Amino acid sequence: MKLRLTTRGALEAAAYGTFILVILLLPTVADVFWLNRFAKYLVYGMLGIAVALSWGYAGVLNLGQGLFFGLGAYMVAMTLKLQSETSMQQGADTPIPDFMAWNSQPGALKDLCCIAPGSWLWIPFQSQAFGIAMVLLVPTAVAFLIGWSIFRLRISGVFISIITLALVLLVRLLIVDWQPVTNGFNGLTDLGWLTFGGFEFDPYVVPTYYLVAFGTVAVLLLTRLLVATRAGLVLQATRDDANRARYLGYDVARYQVFFFTVSGLIAGIAGAFYVIASEFASPTFLDLTFSVSMVVWAAVGGRNSLLGACIGAILINTIQATVSESEMLAEAWKAIIGLIFVLVVLFLPRGIAGLARDIAMRLAALLGRGTPAAQPLQKSE
Amino acid sequence: MAQNALVIDGIGVDFSGFKAVDGFSTVIEEGEVRVLLGANGAGKTTLMDLISGKTKSTEGSVHLFGREITNLEEHQIAQAGVGRKFQIPSVFRDLTVRENLIVACARQPSVLGNLRLRRNAAERRRFDEVVELTALGDVLDRVAGVLSHGQTQWLELGMLIGQGARVMLLDEPTAGMTVGETMKTAALINRLRGDYTMLVVEHDMAFVREIASKITVMHLGKHLAEGRVEQIEQNPAVREAYLGSGGIH
């Protein structure tokens, strides 16, 4: 039994190590355009982690994860918009987003305070530090409020999915409708670059890739650590049987709210990284299809595995990008991914991660047969 | 004179006109194993729901070692020291037996207090004690969902011990068990006798004779009779209530 556990742990460590090594070594083989593309896939990987945490570990199928992604994205996009050169060239002392200037009433004061109703909300975003603080704060606060309302009332199962789905569409509508402040359907484009200590994170340089890659690695490892704690174990217990956990003395709602909020925070951070790599934020981030896609990535990769869901997201998006080069395949892609999803749900409920684990365990058992110690097994990945 | 572990005073619940439990009172002493008898629908499980907070009472009160726990939330009642075992065994099926017991043995209910990887000495000691008592040592790394019925029941009982419950509510702990498993469960309960106070719902009279210090009989939501096994078996009111099913057997 002990041997089995060691093997399992070693295999998992090997899988994490390999994955981290691959994404950190990628710049040695790929050019910057490819790296930029891959940075976005890493961001999708973070979303996979967020979904796995909430769906796989907490048993909460959030169909509105895009809400937190979108909030994180808009927070950083607002601050980067004010850093862009066009915002400085609107004929005012302070930066003004170009769309506000275009849409302003004749004679309106050219200042963030009053160029459009509500434009004063942008004022603090002149500070990049403020924008980044908001990336962490706003998705967390919103996720906390939503989670608190849902879990205090002991809402569960499909009802959570319906509520989160409705909420992401509601916020999408608000952003599209609040045109003077958010630039509505067009989103925020023509952004400046993130600057740190004088260094500008141009999306098409290697350090920007590393910024996203280190962010992904940090999110992956910290989340893995989090679910390994006792609290993570209690969370999985509440997923299996919430009542049992209650009668053991756990306030189940607190655990659910906490991890729902962490999942929202991860999605928010992912949104911010996405903006840094892609230089725009748009209400499409809050489209239903996007939130549903995240669920598909996690299901295919393995929703019970953070790494699996992360790799699932990266893999599907890489294939999707390759496939969309050909027009015919691009059309068929949605049907293909839908089919893959159905097949995985039916035949591989633990996704690619579950399959890989089974194969690796069997190989390890095969190679380890007759060897007395666990040591040789650890090398067998 | 032993301390009163659980004092139930006139507890009742009104489900829009239907009183599943109606002004029920009893006092259970510390270390006692009390068996609750009654025909189907007598309100036994509802009484357990009322004590453990699953159902909120509309009258009466429950005191645990002198502290009022009436109508608190389930987790608060559990933290106060009431453990509950369900009729259909309820364990964390996707977690291993070890993980089930680790979750149960944690002394810290809050999220932030549990953001740690290691167990403290007290928790490890409790864990080892439970493993020894329930004889689950060989299956610790097995997923709870694949355990046999008997093992699942013992795991759940072990979790109650692990959580530090001073009063255990056991709803038909031998339901569906083989004779051998039932005897093993009786032996386990007898080992726990004295250290834990138990309120057990059970129909199997052989098992009841094996474990009961005292029996309380419920009928139509009310307290009907209370006493030692022989007294209850002779009691005319109990015979009357059970007449339809041919008396206690």
Structure description:
Chain A is an all-alpha fold and 381 residues long. Helices cover 71% and strands 2% of the residues of chain A. Chain A is built from 17 helices and two strands. In chain A, strands 1-2 form a two-stranded antiparallel sheet. Chain B is of the alpha/beta class. Chain B has one domain: Rossmann fold (3-Layer(aba) Sandwich), CATH 3.40.50. Chain B has nine helices and ten strands. Chain B has a six-stranded mixed sheet, sandwiched between helices. In chain B, strand 1 and strand 2 (18-29) form a beta hairpin. The longest helix of chain B has 14 residues, at 121-134. Chain B is globular, with a radius of gyration of 18 Å. At the A-B interface, helix 9, helix 10, helix 11 and helix 12 of A face helix 2 and helix 3 of B.
List keywords for this structure.
heterodimer; A: 381 residues; mainly alpha; two-stranded antiparallel ribbon; 2 strands; 2% strand; B: 249 residues; alpha/beta; Rossmann fold; six-stranded mixed β-sheet; 35% helix; 25% strand
Q: How far is the first residue's CA from the last residue's CA of chain A?
A: 19 Å
The protein's oligomeric status is heterodimer
* N-end to C-end Cα span of chain B: 33 Å
Structural class of chain B: alpha/beta
Gross morphology of chain A is: globular
The number of distinct β-strands of chain A equals 2
Order of helices and strands of chain B: EEEHEEHEHHHEHEHEEHH
Query: What is the level 1 CATH name of chain B?
Result: Alpha Beta
Radius of gyration of chain B: 18 Å
Share of residues in helices of chain B = 25-40%
